């Protein structure tokens, strides 16, 4: 892949073998900023001849129509390239999905020496008439991320691409939310009830903060890839629904707590409707937790993670559910008996001053 490092809409040329080394597909693509290159239909390539060397590398000679043009007067034109990772891709689809590069390099090239009369680039095996060595021969090694060239026509440095930090942060934060923060918040709410509502308020605030913090890098990553730029994948739709529902339940809980506290200050019982509103709040939050567990797995699948990692997450999620469901059931039984006991103590007060003579 090669692009003009100075252009805001650079061109990329992607190529891969098809039909078991019987041909090659060349896909001219355009990209803006740090986004996945997209096939550019207005760029045409006329394939002339191909050769395969002893390493089974296929060399393609072609004429580009509508490609990026370069000025011959630039003695240090900025360029960059990206390589890998290895992918078994056998397709003639010009819009085939690609993976994030594993290494990239930036370099400058002397266009005065890199082109022959008429702007035609010289062959790697054809020396410039004015020199004894080919004009453009690039070679690099992985030692200390350094690169070398056979002449001063071009110089560059190879950089190993680090992890996709935004994607990694997005996945880790959401996994923490689904496996730890959300169930802990539910445990606090179930164990303390309305007597220590402020503690549940603190854990709920942390819960929402984690979700928002995980969503931000997810949005950034979504804008970088073709498949997710429109935010129409199942993972993104489900994620948006859970964020909206969680935000709604957060303010729902605040309003419910305020209604109960106001009634208590007036020496009154909370309205009967608060019980139904509380049940809705609890069950919707439980559904949100399940959706978070599912959506993390969907996200791992969308990002094409290794099956071992996906299965490990599924096993961990199932384990968390197996451990927490009995605990939730016990808390529910305790709360039910507590309410029955409180109602039993209140019943005699109804008839305190209405006995029969």
UniProtKB/TrEMBL annotation:
It holds the Pfam family CDH-cyt. It comes from the Eukaryota. Keywords: Membrane, Transmembrane, Transmembrane helix. InterPro entries: Cellobiose_DH-like_cyt. The chain crosses the membrane at residues 171-192, 204-222, 237-259, 280-298, 310-331. Residues 21-114 form the Cellobiose dehydrogenase-like cytochrome domain. CDD domains: CDH_like_cytochrome. Gene3D superfamilies: 1.20.120.1770, Cellobiose dehydrogenase, cytochrome domain (2.60.40.1210). This is Cellobiose dehydrogenase-like cytochrome domain-containing protein. It comes from Chaetomium globosum (strain ATCC 6205 / CBS 148.51 / DSM 1962 / NBRC 6347 / NRRL 1970) (Soil fungus).
